[in-house]
Amino acid sequence: MSQVLDEIEACVPALRRYARALTHDPDRADDLVQDCLERAIRKRRLWRPTGSVRSWVFRILVNVHRNELRRLRRSLTPISLEILPGGDPAGPDVQPDRLALAETVRAMQALPAEQREVLLLVGVEEMSYAEAATVLSIPVGTLMSRLARARAALRSLTDTGVPKLRSVK
User: Fold this and answer.
1) Residue 36 in 3-state DSSP?
2) Which of 25, 53, 80, 136 is 20 to 30 A from 128 in CA distance terms?
3) Are 115 and 146 spatial neighbours (Cβ–Cβ below 8 Å)?
C-alpha cells in the first residue's frame, strides 16, 4: 500500500498542472487537487493493479472536476465576461509570443469541455491514447475523434491569416 501512496505523490505536479489548465484559477485548481488526493488516499484500497495509479488518480480528478461543474451550474447564474475587470490584456508592450500564448489559451477555453480534456491529457500531460481514454472512461476511438476535432477547432480558432513559419529539415 505504501507503494501506491508513493505513486500518488509522484502524480501531484501533473495533477496540479492539469487542474490549472482545466480551471484557469490557481485557488480552484489547488482545491480540486486537494479533493482528488483526499479521495484517492481515502479510497486507495479500491485501486486494482490492472492499470496505472496515474490513470486512476487522473480519473478521480476528472470526476471531481465534472461533479464540481455540475454543482456550480445548478447554483450560479452566469455572468458576462465583458463586466469582468482587467480589460484587454494586449497592449503595445506585449510580446508576440505572449500574445500567441494568450490566444491559444482563449481558444482552448472556447473548446467544448470534452475536447479540452482530451487535448490537455494527450498534448500537455503526454498520456498515451489508451491511458487518456481510461482516465476519461471512453473508448480509444472516441478519444481519437475528440482529439482530432479539438486540434482542428484549435487551428481554426487561432488562425489569424498570417503565414506560419515552417521549420526546415
Assistant:
1) helix
2) 25
3) yes
Architecture of domain 1-76: Orthogonal Bundle (1.10)
d(CA 32, CA 13): 13
Q: Would you list the domain boundaries of the chain?
A: 1-76, 95-161
The pTM score is 0.61
CATH topology for 95-161 is: Arc Repressor Mutant, subunit A (1.10.10)
Query: Which residue is it, cell 500574445?
Result: 99
pLDDT per residue as tens digits for the range 101-128? 778 888 888 889 899 999 989 988 889 9
Residue 134 has pLDDT above 60, yes or no: yes
Q: Cell match 479540452: residue?
A: 116
Instruction: Give CA 66 to chain center in angstroms.
Output: 12
